[in-house]
Specification:
The protein has 7 helices and 6 strands, in the order βαβαββββααααα. The protein is α/β, with parallel strands linked by helices. Helix 1 packs across helix 6 and helix 3 packs across helix 4. This is Probable inosine/xanthosine triphosphatase.
Length: about 180
């Protein structure tokens, strides 16, 4: 709950990229407020590598629900789930963000981009995207760093900033509650 130290954000992941993205999004949307973010481990209830838009959204929704059950005293719960989906013969990647405060829920999807064929092939064979990136691009734990987007844009856009944009969009119902 709100106290003199700020509003508590529970992020349904211990991945530091996701925790920082949730915190940065809330700080940017509500610059006059103080926030404290904590990442917790909760299951997504979907595959480690969600393979469709709907499965990815369901993972983010599940994470928020489970984080709320585990830590009901928070002001905001945030679930971020990265996934992939087929567009024709190509594989795209993106993330869904779900934010809940009280009974109000905001949802948004990040920008989407196409994976290069060698990465897409490994993912299609069952490898998680982060591991496929690490293998193809000789990285270590890239999903807790710049992610695929950071690698492919050569640092012009990283995973955290991609997620921050989606967090901001998921917060629209909280910024303009009279419309939602």
């Amino acid at each position: 709950m709100t106290d003199n130290q700020g509003k508590k954000i529970v992020v349904a992941s211990t991945n530091p990229v996701k925790v920082r993205a949730a915190l940065a999004g809330l700080q940017r949307m509500f610059p006059g407020q103080e926030f404290l973010a904590e990442g917790i481990s909760v299951p997504s209830g979907v595959a480690d590598q969600p393979m469709s838009d709907q499965e990815t959204l369901q993972g983010a929704l599940n994470r928020v629900q489970r984080a709320r059950e585990k830590q009901p005293e928070a002001d905001f719960w945030v679930g971020l789930e990265g996934g992939v989906d087929r567009v024709g013969s190509d594989l795209t990647t993106f993330a869904w963000v779900v934010v809940q405060a009280g009974e109000k829920i905001g949802k948004a999807r990040s920008g989407t981009f196409f994976l290069p064929p060698p990465v897409a092939q490994l993912v299609a064979e069952g490898m998680e995207l982060g591991h496929a990136n690490d293998q193809i691009f000789s990285q270590v734990n890239s999903k807790q760093k710049g992610g695929a987007v950071g690698i492919l844009t050569q640092g012009m856009l990283d995973r955290q900033e991609l997620y921050v944009q989606a967090v901001l969009l998921a917060l629209v119902p909280f910024k303009s509650p009279e419309l939602y």
